[in-house]
Write a structure and sequence with these properties.
10 helices, 174 residues, elongated, single chain, 78% helix, mainly alpha
Length: 174
C-alpha cells in the first residue's frame, strides 16, 4: 500500500518515511535507508526523519552516517522532550561508544540522564563508558543503580552481568 502511495505522491516525504518504516519491519534495511535518504532530501529541516535515518544506518552498521544523521537532527531539535529526540540522543551515545569515542558517548548519555534521571539505557551506557576508561568504581555504581531501579529489564540483566564479571575479576564489591 505504501509503495502504491509513493507512485501517486513521490514528492511527499511522509509517504517515503512510512514506506521506510514498513521496509524496516520486513528487514529490508537498505530499501528503508534509500527511502529515508530521499525523505530527508525532500524535508531537510525535519529532525524526526533524520533520527529515523540515523537508526536505519545503525542497523546497517554504518556508524559514521548514523552519527551525521543524528547530529544533524539533534541540531535542528536539541530539546529532549520529544521521544524520538531522546532516543536519538541515547542511540548517538551508543554509536559514539561503539566507535571508541568515550567522551562524546558520555556527553550524550549525560544529556539523556539530565532529561530522564532514572532512565536505565543512558545510565547503562554511561557505566560502560566509565568502565572502558578504567573508572571501575563509578561503573559499578552506575550498574548497581540500573539493577536496583529497573529490575527485570534487559538493561538490568546486562548491568548485572557486568557487576558479576567485575566482582569475579576484582573480588567482592561492597
Amino acid at each position: 500500500a505504501f509503495e502504491a502511495a509513493l507512485q501517486k505522491a513521490p514528492e511527499l516525504p511522509e509517504v517515503r518515511v512510512n514506506l521506510a518504516l514498513a521496509y524496516l519491519r520486513l528487514s529490508r534495511t537498505a530499501d528503508a535507508v534509500a527511502q529515508l535518504e530521499k525523505a530527508a532530501a525532500l524535508a531537510p529541516d525535519e529532525p524526526r526523519t533524520l533520527f529515523q535515518l540515523g537508526g536505519a544506518y545503525v542497523e546497517m552498521n554504518d556508524l559514521d552516517k548514523a552519527v551525521a544523521a543524528f547530529e544533524k537532527g539533534l541540531g535542528k531539535q536539541p530539546g529532549l522532550s520529544d521521544t524520538l529526540a531522546y532516543e536519538a540522543t541515547v542511540t548517538l551515545g551508543a554509536v559514539y561508544f561503539a566507535k571508541g569515542e568515550n567522551e562524546k558517548a558520555m556527553a550524550q548519555f549525560e544529556k539523556a540522564l539530565a532529561a530522564k534521571p532514572d532512565a536505565a539505557a543512558p545510565k547503562l551506557g554511561l557505566g560502560k563508558a566509565h568502565f572502558s576508561k578504567g573508572n571501575v568504581d563509578k561503573a559499578l555504581q552506575l550498574f548497581q543503580q540500573v539493577v536496583s531501579s529497573t529490575p527485570g529489564s534487559p538493561e538490568a540483566a546486562e548491568a548485572d552481568a557486568f557487576i558479576k564479571a567485575l566482582r569475579k575479576a576484582k573480588g567482592p564489591v561492597a
